[in-house]
Amino acid sequence: MDTKEQIARDLLKIQAVFFRPDEPFTWASGIHSPVYCDNRLTLTDVAVRNDVEKAIAATVQAVYPRAELLMGTSTAGIAHAAIAGHLLGMPMGYVRSGAKDHGRRNQIEGRLLPGQKVVVVEDLISTGGSCIEVVNVLREAGAEVLGIVSIFTYGMQAGLARLAAAQVQNVSLTDFDTVARVAAQEGYIRPADVARLLAFRDNPDDESWIRAEK
What integer pLDDT is reported at residue 97 of this predicted model? Predict the structure, then answer.
């Protein structure tokens, strides 16, 4: 079993990714979504956590062999960066969503040296906006950002376009397409629902998938 499929099975098993195409969730933006994602649940399941952290570490070694430092996104990426950094024997830090209003007023926590080669660790990517902000903060501080490792990505066109425009490589342990396929295979959803899910992925603003034949 390859990594994408293994992580997909893990996320479905603990309902870190949960599909509900007939009763959509509502995002803060108002968009109706057939999927709910909370990868923080991976931290409370020991077996799944081991799979995820070993996969993050292996991805860093394989894709970013020059990496010198892991930087987690705040807050969901912090624990994953710490555990994967421990497995790799590599230092880690994290980037706040904004600078502190007291003390040293840091936005980057941990020691970052100019020119240091950094990999960002993120739990999930949808539109890509938040992780690109982290990359920009690190670049402005003098880091050479090699890329991102994320647990799950939706693969939405807006997110892919933003990452490309920012010249940021992202490698995800698994993705929306794989999780949807495995969900159908394992009986979490009906096989007919896969096309509806992918229609949502292709254009979240078009809600015709909600009324599609079930």
Answer: 79
How much is the average pLDDT of 119-129? 94
| Mean of per-residue pLDDT scores for the chain | 93
- Quote the CA–CA distance of 147 and 169 in Å, as a whole number: 5
Listed residue (14, 60, 65, 205) closest to 127, CA to CA: 205
Over residues 160-188, the mean pLDDT reads 96
Residues in CB range of 196: below 8 A, 6 or more apart: 21, 34, 209, 210, 212, 214
pTM of the model: 0.93
- CB–CB of 173/3 below 8 Å? yes
How many residues would you count in the chain? 214
Question: Quick one: average pLDDT of 10-23?
Answer: 95
Q: How far apart are CA 134 and CA 141, in angstroms?
A: 11
The span from the CA of 38 to the CA of 76, in Å, is 9
**CB-neighbour burial class of residue 90 (10 A; exposed 0-12, middle 13-18, buried 19+):** middle
